[in-house]
Design goal:
This protein has 533 residues and is α+β, with helices and mostly antiparallel strands. It has helices at 13-17, 30-40, 70-73, 78-94, 116-130, 140-146, 168-181, 238-242, 313-326, 381-392, 423-433, 437-443, 459-468, 474-481, 484-487, 496-507, 511-528; strands at residues 21-26, 46-49, 65-66, 99-109, 137-139, 155-166, 185-187, 190-197, 200-201, 209-216, 222-232, 251-262, 271-275, 282-288, 291-295, 299-300, 339-348, 362-367, 370-375. 33% of the residues lie in helices and 23% in strands.
Length: 533
């Protein structure tokens, strides 16, 4: 089944959306993408609609970590940690080149919690859950060689352990690509106006949900789409569909903000995990996609969900204070920061005063026929999707499936040898594009397999995205299909002429359209991805 992933695909929408669907998934983040994949591969006719772009919300603004949640052990959340560790190991095997190991270093400073003994105990449990063993403690000299530039005052030594990292937006896109091979359909910029109900529509009617009324954010047309089941996977935005006074759990939107620095200014071979000097919260800095990421904050997001999240002045000061404490000899300043980003996490409210102590478990509930899922972690998206389908089975008479976990991605053939690609570049492309990686390489023109300076992206990825990945706006291309907007100063303004030369013909945009898109993108970048005044 084809899906509107290319520039002419929206012409197919009237016929596509008129079909009778088994399942409609609302929300194009990692949770929605996972549900689309698991439902489609199990024979359900499934459609995903996203009001903005795929991964626009939380799933392109995460901390980029695929981790077991070591810190949840001290809170007694052994079940969540065990599931997360196992899912991390699956993704490392099945998504090599997209999900990659990342070693973490944690300094053992005199008087600093959690202390050597407790930390090593946690790591021993972590290892047991992953079915592996490793050396974790290093002497002061050995640790300083592993993590140079860190503060040395009162340093006794340090601990090292391994988790994993990813490009979160590309992970979403790879899951959506996999879902398409099983007949799943995903449409971006397709917002749900209201839920359709048996006997009427709108919140006042008591009938069960039987579909959605959507509006095309590109062309403006409205469509009524019927389905046997509607699943809301809108995360922190779930309250808008549920309405007021619902029976489900209360959501607590928490904002996590990050800084991006050049790798040469904060050079790290290991990720460095530390406790913030002000409040003892965990903060990290690690190498990612040719830059260094620093994060994260964990604060209540009170700005409302209608506007895009952005880092605040207080959060910038908080993260810079952590850097000054951990890397004093580097004398880092805000002038070193390339960009920032902020995302809102859909956390289930347990009444904790401290946002950092809220759990990361997911929850499901049914309200008048609408199945809602919220909470959870990037790492556990497959587990969340299978839990949704277990709940959905009672709402889909005649459909049954054992719901055994399956590999997230089908194995893809290795790329043909190309002297323009290094071994690591080939593995990276294969991890991100799977079976489409060879077509991407074949579509590259002269020089387009070169890496864009300051990133690990090759120019051909931009051509492929413009041609095949449902780019509707320039921000889609530069902030999610690629991460250039985070990795280069000014959002990549210096390379926009070449980006235009490659992508404008593929997108079919007029000069006027490109100029308008570029102006809108740069305005957005300045207001939401730079540092606040």
């Amino acid at each position: 089944m084809s899906a509107p992933w290319h520039r002419g695909g929206r012409e197919e929408l009237p016929q596509l959306l008129a079909r009778e669907w088994d399942v409609i998934v609302i929300g194009g983040g990692i949770t929605g993408a996972g549900i689309l994949l698991e439902a489609a591969r199990r024979g359900l006719k499934t459609l995903l609609v996203e009001q903005r772009d795929f991964a626009w919300g939380t799933s392109s603004r995460s901390s980029k970590l695929v981790h077991g949640g070591l810190r949840y052990l001290k809170e007694g959340k052994f079940g969540l940690t065990r599931v997360s560790v196992r899912e991390r190991e699956h993704l490392l095997r099945e998504a090599a080149g997209l999900v990659e190991p990342q070693s973490f270093a944690f300094g053992d400073y005199e008087g600093r919690k959690p202390g050597r003994r407790m930390f090593l105990l946690g790591l021993a449990i972590y290892d047991r859950m992953a079915g592996q063993r490793a050396r974790h403690y290093f002497s002061r000299d050995d640790f300083m060689a592993l993590a140079p530039n860190i503060a040395t005052a009162r340093l006794n030594g340090g601990m090292c352990y391994t988790d994993a990292k990813t490009d979160d937006a590309r992970l979403v896109l790879r899951v959506l690509q996999e879902a398409r091979t099983h007949g799943g359909v995903a449409v971006n910029y397709m917002g749900v106006e209201t839920l359709l109900r048996d006997g009427g529509e709108g919140e006042a009617d008591a009938g069960a949900v039987c579909g959605v009324l959507v509006k095309d954010g590109v062309g403006g047309a409205e469509y009524r789409i019927n389905a046997r089941l509607v699943v809301s996977a809108t995360g922190a935005w779930a309250g808008g569909l549920r309405g007021q006074g619902g029976a489900g759990p209360r959501l607590r939107p928490l904002r996590g903000s990050h800084l991006v620095l050049p790798a040469w200014r904060l050079p790290l071979a290991q990720a460095v995990s530390l406790m913030h000097p002000a409040d003892g919260r965990p903060v990290f800095a690690f190498p990612w996609e040719g830059v260094t990421l620093v994060g994260t904050t964990d604060v209540d997001h009170r700005a409302g969900m209608a506007q895009e999240a952005a880092i605040t002045r207080a959060e910038v000061d908080y993260l810079m204070a952590a850097l000054h404490d951990q890397f004093p000899q580097l004398a880092l300043s805000e002038a070193d920061v390339i960009s920032s980003y902020a995302g809102v996490r859909p956390v289930i409210d347990s009444g904790e005063n401290d946002p950092s102590k809220e759990g990361r478990d997911h929850a499901l509930w049914v309200e008048r026929g609408l199945l809602t899922v919220a909470g959870g972690k990037l790492t556990t998206f497959r587990v969340i999707a299978l839990d949704v389908l277990k709940q959905a089975a009672a709402l889909l008479p005649g459909w049954r499936d054992a719901l055994r976990p399956l590999p997230v991605f089908a194995a893809a053939a290795p790329l043909k040898f190309n002297r323009s690609l290094s071994f690591s570049q080939a593995g990276r492309l294969l991890g991100r594009y799977g079976a489409q990686a060879q077509a991407l390489v074949d579509a590259a023109l002269d020089g387009e397999l070169d890496t864009i300076a300051g990133t690990e992206t090759v120019w051909a990825q931009l051509r492929w995205a413009a041609r095949c990945e449902a780019v509707q706006h320039l921000e889609d291309l530069l902030l999610r299909r690629s991460r250039i907007g985070l990795q280069l100063r000014g959002g990549g303004v210096a390379i926009l002429p070449r980006v235009r030369a490659i992508c404008q013909p593929e997108l079919g945009w007029s000069d006027q359209r490109w100029d308008a898109e570029q102006a809108a993108y740069l305005t957005l970048w300045q207001s939401h991805y730079s540092l606040p005044a």
